[in-house]
Design goal:
This protein is mainly alpha-helical and about 140 residues long. It has four helices and two strands. The termini are far apart.
């Protein structure tokens, strides 16, 4: 039975030299597992073909596992609310800061992280101002 991995465009994508290194840690080797930036389980919310190379990146098994350990199999369907997804992604960035995690994350995770970070940074500034009595 043919699967999305058997598609010519996916095979071509996986065969390019750039995809013979992990998109996150740049480790050589392979063959790597294609990671769907926008999860397959949320296909109905993706505009276009969920299995197109545009939605894929190649990740080594270690980076792939770290990402999903931090954010869950499907970040938006985990028990985490958007701020929880943002915080979980931030912990991933802090724990392995030199790795390119943004290559694996869909837009909604990046947005949740940005919103979480702005809330943390700006909320902290506002709270300090209140405590200091300055406005």
């Amino acid at each position: 039975m043919k699967t999305w991995r058997d598609r010519a465009d996916v095979k071509e994508f996986a065969s390019h030299e750039i995809n013979k290194r992990c998109a996150v840690c740049d480790a050589p080797g392979g063959p790597w597992t294609p990671h769907h930036r926008h999860p397959k389980a949320r296909e109905e919310t993706y505009e276009g073909d969920i299995h197109s190379p545009k939605n894929l990146c190649m990740a080594c098994p270690e980076c792939h596992a770290r990402y999903h350990d931090a954010l869950g199999a499907v970040p938006s369907q985990s028990a985490l609310r958007a701020d929880g997804v943002g915080a979980a992604f931030h912990r991933l960035l802090k724990r392995w800061p030199k790795l390119k995690w943004r290559m694996m994350a869909p837009e909604y995770v990046l947005k949740a992280h940005e919103d979480w970070w702005m809330n943390q940074a700006m909320g902290g500034v506002a709270k300090r101002r209140e405590e200091d009595g300055s406005e």
